[in-house]
Fold each of these.
Amino acid sequence: MTSTRRHPGWVAAVGVVLIALGVALWWTQSNRTQAMTADPAGASNATPETGTTAEAVRAPRKPGAPTRVRIPSLGVDAPVLPVRAPDRTLIPPSDPQRLGWWADGAKPGAARGSALVTGHTVHTGGGALDDLEHVEPGDLVVVRTDRGTIRYDVQRVKIFSKGTIADHATKLFSQDVSGRLVLITCEDWDGERYLSNVVVTATPRA
């Protein structure tokens, strides 16, 4: 996802992060584990104007929710909106310059759980997380909330194909781990769809 792909036609090329990829995410809620599976029909029915037929479901902003994510090594400084996962499907904001935080998961800075932040990828450029695969272990990620700023160090950058990410979802998106940040977006555009996800895991800076 290099700068050669960036041009004004990005809107029609938005990658649907979790609808198009058939990803299974897992979380702990109400003392039980539930599966969140994506709807594979979303990509084939996508409209040229938005790249997806579905809109993000906004959640009320609550104390401690993230408001911006900054990744200095990529030049990313993006606003974050709280979103929900009705019917177990998490959809990022349609604007690829905005990110979505799963409001029913951990908050940034929480002692336990994965704070999940996701965004659309644009294969022609223009998405905040287009170059997420280029971050490296040790890179800084800064999350701003109304209660302060949390600094994270990237620990792991992993690309998962559609067929394998579900196998690792329980571990990747666990709410039973020590507090951490998980960023996810699309990867591997083949001319028609995205074949993979980039998942970045970061832990609070000591």
Note: Confidence is low (pLDDT under 50) at residues 1-53.
Amino acid sequence: MGPSMALLDQLPLSSGFHARSTGAEVLAGLDLSGRVAIVTGGYSGLGLETARALARCGARVWVPVRDRAKAAATLAGVEGRVETVDLDLGDLRSVRHFAHEARTTLPRLDLLILNAGIMAVPETRVGPGWEAQFGTNHLGHMALALELVGLLRSTEGARVVALSSTGHKISGVRWDDPHFRSSAYDKWQAYGQSKTANALFANAMSRRLRPSGGLAFSVHPGGIFTPLQRHLSQAEQVRLGWINEDGSPLALAQSGFKSPQQGCATTLWAATSAALAGRPGVYCEDCDIAAPTDRGSPLARYRGVEAHACDDDAAERLWSLSASMLAEA
């Protein structure tokens, strides 16, 4: 069987940016006045840097929050118009309430940035018994996008950006048991599945936005030390080769990991770059379209995109499966 058509679309553009480009560099010279963005997870880590960069360029930014006190502290002093609204992605009632408020308050929605996420958590259930990483990282975000799709379609040039990860290489979608109901839970398999789902969601979402001129993309932001690692013990991070026994970053991690300012750059590039017009649904990394994984490269684990994460048929199958789960919840 040959490569999927979607994998053939994974052709880097020589964008002019690179792995160390910052969000500020990507947005330099852009005036986003009058634009409206929603950034999930926008008060921590990469999401905070993304929200800050968009607001600085004039966008009105809505940040969904679970912890208002924490959000108030981290967003204090952010330049521009940033508003916080309650949202828990693991609770569909909360998702629907947030979306209703958005539909009745916002005049348009130019950017929906699905940035929030959890990684390698102990076995946890959300909603109607969903595995938490699949339920939060994918299903909660899909539910939000579906609730807001009318607003997106009515906004010229709207874009959806879903944060995936090189973690998608760990696992494709576990079609027969996505919620680990009949097999032993593996936190990394669950995380990898959710990141594949994020990429496939963007692939499928791009087709739903095409008639109105909208676009959707998935991005790998790069390795970054952020609160995403909060569920990993120091010992596990040592075993992963990220830190030394004393908690300091290993030299290899220091050279390979990005700062949050660099980590938000690919998201912002996918959200705003004119170069991506006509390239719907692609998976991006280092401020460019990612190439298919090069099996001969020593960096194959960390760079490129796997066929299972950018397959049109798999994307439609996941969309149908997920829509059924949401309808039954």
Note: The first helix runs from residue 5 to 8.
